[in-house]
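Box 4.2: Ligand-aware structure prediction
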Amino acid sequence: MSPQLQKYLREKRVQVDRTLDHVLPPEEQEPCVIHRSMRYSVLAGGKRLRPILVIAAYQVAGGSRDAILVPACGLELIHTYSLIHDDLPCMDDDDYRRGRPTNHKVFGEAMAVLAGDAMTALAFECLLTEDQEDCFPAGAQLRAARAVARAIGTVGLVGGQVMDISNDARDGRKETLEETCARKTGALIGTSLECGGLLAGADSSVLEALRRYGRGLGLGFQIIDDVLNVTGDPRQMGKAAHSDQARDMVTFASLLGVEGAREEAQRWIEDAKSALDFLGEVAWPLREIADYVLERES
Ligand code: GRG
């Protein structure tokens, strides 16, 4: 990763973490246990990729206000909610996430379900936060909230998770696996970019470029996630390795082999970057984030 991107990501993570701390209810607020549960998972760290993509797309599309931070955090809340529910015994039944015991291991299943539910509500509050200084174009927040609502429903996360837990990709078709990943992972990543563009008032050609970049980035990201499940270091990743194999899941790594999967990811990342060609130098953070997704080890 270039020193320039390292600095960019560090600065954005600090801003996102500070904003998340601010928008989450304090632990002392009744009922305390649910607020402890929410803060436990959200403030456990993580790469903050989705909110950073909102901010980067917003800036690439010409936005310059700090007001983007609150809606951007809405995307992180949805993402963390999906992780909490994904880890439940009725789903993937995982014990570790972001380097600590999973939410249900600490707070119990009921509280983990409720923390996720509360985080969706809070995410939409963030997306629809009162725009006191007309930072965003009229109607943009509504369009962004609608895009997020769509992305988490049956055409996106929920649909992808249904295909994932049903192991639909057992049919051995790469297209089925691509469809599962495009929904389960790609939808939220793509929508993060779309939200940034919408909130900056981007025109349709920029929005289309962000969508195409998002599709390639989302698939590339999930393929590397599959590879890391085989080759990664659990301490560095903060979650278990080899869980896909243990559950007999068909993944890009099992379907194409580790090297084949890396090559497939590279193709998607190249396609993602080429979508940005006409945007010129201003799109450098998105280009470098795409390269980072390919190199990442956690
Ligand atoms: C409707 C939000 C919602 C969820 C219900 C449980 C579920 C349906 C979907 C699960 C989706 C899921 C967990 C997909 C995996 C995506 C993925 C690769 C997550 C890892 O993301 P990272 O590496 O994690 O960005 P950090 O911890 O760094 O944020």
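In the box above, the bound molecule is geranylgeranyl diphosphate. Residues 3-295 form a domain with the Farnesyl Diphosphate Synthase fold (CATH 1.10.600.10).
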